[in-house]
Design goal:
The complex is a heterodimer of chains A (267) and B (297). With 267 residues, chain A is α/β, with parallel strands linked by helices. Chain A has nine helices and ten strands. Chain A folds into two domains: 118 residues, D-Maltodextrin-Binding Protein, domain 2 (3-Layer(aba) Sandwich), CATH 3.40.190.10; 99 residues, Osmoprotection protein (prox), domain 2 (D-Maltodextrin-Binding Protein, domain 2). Helix content of chain A is 42%, strand content 22%. The N terminus of chain A is likely disordered. The N terminus of chain B is likely disordered. The longest helix of chain B has 34 residues. In chain B, 69% of the residues lie in helices and 0% in strands. By secondary structure, chain B is mainly alpha-helical. The chains are: A alpha/beta (267), B mainly alpha (297). Chains A and B meet through helix 3 and strand 7 of A and helix 7 and helix 14 of B.
Chain lengths: 267, 297
């Protein structure tokens, strides 16, 4: 019982943090409208960033830094599955920057001519096995996931973490039947956090973000399925100056430090 | 009052506006000659928003039809996964409706026909799944019935039953979301039904359960039918609670809405095709039901 109470508490804390971010953003918008000068010398106004769900924590931090470094700006994020975001951009969503969790997804947007310049890889992500705290089933490799009675969840192959997991499993020569193909990496992780599944194949960064609620197990085949994260400004960006500045921050040493702190690998 | 229609002097009392349902002395002949009162002069302040409302509901569906990949449709629909998902959807939605009937109708009776402290609160709680985001409902089900859940851990320990990631889990998730529709509908019908019929039955010696079975149930059958259809339709389209509680595995827990969502990730055309199938099937079933046993509604 205390464990579930703790879980609820942390959920509430997350919700509270989310509300705080929203409040901070709305506060910024009030000051942003009064900012003088329209961006000849520096970025101003709102910059809208569409980013893969796995970037949520690190990009939120970077957004706060950006607003601090460039007073009068406001960073609005739309975090979600890369493919959903790409579909939104193709459908004409007014975004300035797109950061995807796979080059394939970025290619969809680039091929339709929606990006300004060519996208560049700013971080990479590797898979890990997320197990229950303390790894009670003694999972040490992908092969161990096929043990009878073990409940494993994977991402669906339509989302990047699922296709990466499939590549890694093929590389390891392991035939794995999971109990579920989850719709995104976070719901796969949640199933382990709630102890409904014994293990999930997720990103290193997700294991890191889950703290002590899961334990990460590295496996060599993850090298076969490294995800490149490309970022690009968008052709129809309503605020190109700020878009350029935000991309620069993400690629700067400062940005890299935040991202590697969250478990990402340098490109 | 009924105005000038070219009929002979009104034979009975002034015809009631509801088409003469309560008038026992209505004469048949003038019925065809009489213009239908509701059809004439619909006030614009009602007509304009009504048409807007209709358009608002229909235009997105039309757009789906217009942009549907008709040419590749046969190819999209021949994959066994589609039929697997459709079959699972129909089976689970029907099972969820049956389960809702078995436990929902008695619950509605309890709310409508008995008086106990906190009944208002219970009624509010019953409708809670209507406002709860289905994904939250799914998480709540995991916390309650999951392998590590409040109740689920005992199911697991005593009976070896685990519900998440199973077809039973899909049925439970759909029931959780759909049953309130049935309960509300049946409760409303029960409240409108005259309790004196039941009282008469009990006075004549029937037990309360017999009165419920022989008098109340037939009396509220239209409400039960309407509620079942609502619940079935809601269960058929259920997504959030299902994917959260039961996961997504083809043939076991992947219902049509889940298949549509996942197809949307990388193949929107396939997603539209799947949606059309679901749409066609649900329209066919609902239309069929309407003719069969919903005429009174």
């Amino acid at each position: 019982m205390p464990r579930s109470a703790h879980r609820l508490q942390s959920a509430l804390r997350t919700a509270g943090a989310g509300a705080a971010v929203l409040l901070a953003l709305s506060g910024c918008s009030a000051s942003g409208s009064s900012a003088s000068g329209t961006g000849e010398d520096g970025p101003s106004g709102t910059v809208t960033v569409f980013a893969a769900a796995s970037l949520t924590e690190s990009f939120t931090t970077l957004g706060e830094r950006f607003e601090k470094e460039h007073p009068g700006t406001e960073v609005t994020f739309n975090f979600g599955g890369s493919d959903t975001l790409a579909a939104g951009i193709s459908g004409g969503a007014p975004a300035d920057v797109f950061a995807a969790a796979s080059t394939g997804t970025m290619k969809l947007v680039t091929d339709e001519g929606h990006t300004a310049g060519s996208p560049s890889t700013f971080v990479r992500n590797r898979l890990e096995i997320a197990t229950l705290p303390g790894n009670p089933h003694g999972i040490g490799s992908l092969k161990d996931l096929t043990a009878p009675g073990l409940k494993v969840v994977l991402c669906d192959s339509t989302v990047p973490c699922g296709s990466a997991a499939r590549t890694a499993l093929t590389a390891a020569g392991v035939e794995l039947t999971p109990v579920s193909y989850e719709q995104d990496v976070r719901s796969a992780l949640t199933k382990v956090e709630l102890k409904e599944a014994d293990a999930a194949v997720v990103y290193r960064t997700d294991v890191r973000a889950a703290g002590d609620k899961v334990e990460g197990v590295e496996f060599p085949e993850s090298a076969e399925a490294v995800n490149d994260y490309p970022i690009a400004r968008l052709e129809s960006a309503p605020n190109p100056t700020a878009a350029k500045a935000f991309v620069a921050l993400v690629k700067s040493p400062e940005g890299r430090k935040v991202l590697t702190g969250a478990g990402f690998l340098a490109p | 009052m009924t105005g000038r229609h070219g009929t002979p002097p009104d034979p009975g009392a002034p015809a009631p506006p509801d088409g003469g349902r309560s008038g026992t002395r209505t004469v048949r002949a003038p019925r065809t000659a009489r213009p239908r009162t509701p059809g004439r002069g619909v006030p614009l302040p009602l007509l304009a928003p009504a048409l807007l409302g209709l358009a608002f509901l229909l235009v997105p569906l039309l757009a789906l039809l217009l942009r549907a990949p008709w040419r590749s449709l046969p190819e999209q629909l021949t994959s066994p996964e589609v039929w697997q998902a459709l079959r699972l959807s129909l089976v689970c939605a029907t099972a969820a409706t049956v389960l809702s009937l078995v436990i929902g109708v008695p619950l509605a009776w309890l709310l409508a026909r008995t008086d106990f402290p906190g009944r208002g609160l219970v009624r509010a709680l019953v409708t809670l799944p209507l406002v709860l985001p289905p994904v939250v409902g799914g998480v709540a089900l995991l916390l309650a019935l999951g392998r590590n859940g409040v109740v689920g851990q005992w199911l697991d320990a005593w009976f070896g039953i685990t519900l998440p990631f199973t077809t039973t889990g899909v049925v439970l998730a759909e029931t959780f979301v759909a049953m309130p529709f049935l309960v509300i509908s049946v409760e409303g019908t029960l409240r409108a039904a005259d309790p004196r019929y039941e009282e008469a039955a009990t006075t004549l010696g029937a037990s309360r359960f017999t009165a419920f079975r022989r008098v109340t149930l037939p009396l509220i059958a239209p409400g039960i039918a309407a509620g079942s259809v609502l619940a079935w339709a809601r269960a058929l389209g259920e997504f959030g609670a299902t994917i959260t509680f039961a996961g997504n595995f083809p043939g076991r827990t992947q219902t049509m809405p889940l298949a549509v969502y996942l197809a949307l990730q990388n193949d929107p055309a396939a997603a539209i095709a799947l949606s059309l199938v679901l749409l066609a099937v649900s329209i066919a079933v609902l239309a069929g039901l309407r003719d069969r046993w919903m005429r009174t509604v």
